[in-house]
Amino acid sequence: SAPRVIAIDGPAASGKGTLARRLAAALGFAHLDTGGLYRAVGLTLRRAGQDPADAGLAAQAAAALTPGDIAGLMADPELRSEATAQAASLVSVVPAVRQALLDFQRDFAARPPVLADGTPARGAVLDGRDIGTVVCPGAPAKLYVTATVEVRAERRLKELQGRGAVAIYADVLKDMKDRDARDSQRAVAPLKPAADAYLLDTSSLDADQAFDAAMTFVRAKP
Ligand code: C5P
């Protein structure tokens, strides 16, 4: 058996996304990458030529996003760029933006959509920064996934290069540190482990080892 909602939080490139996808696939759960929602808002502003640091415009863009818009933007290759990540990090400090995205996330957890193969989901895995603390504080299974900033920058560099992007380690490391600082120091819903989260440091684990550790934790939950 497995709990119905699994909340996974952690900094960028900690391995939480891969872990969330693998847990969802293994358990027959739907998966929501909540960072994608903030990226969708950031990308909308960039495409409109608007400043992602403008709180009023960010709030308007978030409130105007329909589930259809979200689905389209989540599949957009530009969603994964570093420029969009930085825009996401900027809009995510705006309380009205977070509020606008809250319903979508809670609805996903309460009523997970059918899986790609048409079968009903048995539960939901959400990954982000504030799932265990704000979005789904009642989730029976919470994981907080971390790794050192150097290991995460190295992983992100490989990911960017794997997609054919030109990237330099020093720049990726600086972006990572900037984003960590903004995500963990913001006033609303900062990045931090929930009190009852299982801490998983993936600095010296590969994806299989992280998955095995998480699965053991999740399976032990009622
Ligand atoms: O995880 P990802 O790198 O896609 O997230 C992009 C940005 O969205 C993060 O840097 C963070 O500022 C924001 N975010 C957030 N709350 C979440 C998920 C992401 O503030 N639950």
UniProtKB/TrEMBL annotation:
The keyword Magnesium does not apply. Its EC number is 2.7.4.25. It is found in: Cytoplasm. It catalyses: dCMP + ATP = dCDP + ADP; CMP + ATP = CDP + ADP. Its main location: cytoplasm. The keyword Isomerase does not apply. GO terms for molecular function: kinase activity. This is Cytidylate kinase.
